[in-house]
Amino acid sequence: MNEEQRQYYLKTMGIPVWLTCQQDEYEDVSTEVENIATEDKLLSWESLQKEVANCKQCLLHQSRTQTVFGVGCQTADLLIVGEAPGFHEDQQGEPFVGRAGQLLNDMLLSIGLSRQKVYIANVLKCRPPNNRDPSPEEVATCTPFLEKQISLLKPKLILAVGRVAAHYLLKSNAPMRELRGQIFHFGEQTTPLVVTYHPAYLLRSPREKRKAFEDLLKIQGMLAS
């Protein structure tokens, strides 16, 4: 009995006939779905960046040179979150540049990473005047932007650098000495979160670099597991 006769008799008996697809057909469909998903995600990043660039929801837009959206790999496992842009970031439109940015680059290289392999963003997208701490109102205004970035990125691990970023992400006012060395979890996805010192602080307090390196080793192990 050939295949055509078999299908005829099965239909006659009321038995559903399931036709199998060829493997290359599966691959074609899968590739097309992946391409569409990738295009949609890129459009989401682009639209979010435009939304940030045009934001005037708080007074910081009056003194900024430009917004500082974020930089790095949009599929990275590691998200690094700082507090707010400084002078150099405001001028260049990129987070963590200048001396503090160079130190962050060196810190990443010490565990085999680079700026191109992680994603870096700040809680605030505009520089506060004179590099003052962000106000609670400013943080609340920028919160949706960072949350959307985290939602798009879906990182495996979040590294909060500095007191302000740690307090915002953890909804805590605990001192850094209590936040370091622990593994917290952020958001509905319960993304693991680690806290370390801000590179600008390490430039002022180089003796603390050893503790920061311990944090980096923890991060390296978590990403590898």
Relevant terms:
six-stranded mixed beta sheet; 225 residues; 11% strand; alpha/beta; Uracil-DNA Glycosylase, subunit E; 6 strands; globular
What name goes with the CATH superfamily? Uracil-DNA glycosylase-like domain
Structural category is alpha/beta
Instruction: Characterize the largest beta sheet: strand count, sense, and whether it forms a barrel.
Output: 6 strands, mixed
Would you state the CATH class? Alpha Beta
Query: How helix-rich are the residues, as a percent range?
Result: 40-55%
The first-to-last residue Cα distance is: 54 Å
CATH architecture descriptor name: 3-Layer(aba) Sandwich
Unreliable spans:
17-21
Number of helix segments? 9
How many independent structural domains?
Answer: 1
CATH fold group = Uracil-DNA Glycosylase, subunit E
Largest beta sheet: strand ordering: 1-3-2-4-6-5
Strand composition percent: 5-15%
Which series of helices and strands comes N to C?
Answer: HHEEHHEHEHHEEHH
| Shape call | globular
Number of strands: 6
Task: Explain what this protein looks like in three dimensions.
The protein is of the alpha/beta class. The protein has a single domain, classed as Uracil-DNA Glycosylase, subunit E (3-Layer(aba) Sandwich), CATH 3.40.470. The chain contains nine helices and six strands; from the N terminus they run H-H-E-E-H-H-E-H-E-H-H-E-E-H-H. The chain has a six-stranded mixed β-sheet, with helices on both faces. Strand 5 and strand 6 form a beta hairpin. It is globular and about 85 Å long. The N and C termini lie far apart (54 Å).
Write the layout of secondary structure elements.
Elements: H1 3-12, H2 23-53, E1 71-72, E2 78-82, H3 87-92, H4 98-109, E3 119-122, H5 136-153, E4 157-161, H6 163-170, H7 176-179, E5 184-186, E6 191-196, H8 199-204, H9 209-224
Parallel strand pairs: 2-3, 2-4, 4-6
Antiparallel strand pairs: 1-3, 5-6
Helix pairs in contact: 2-5
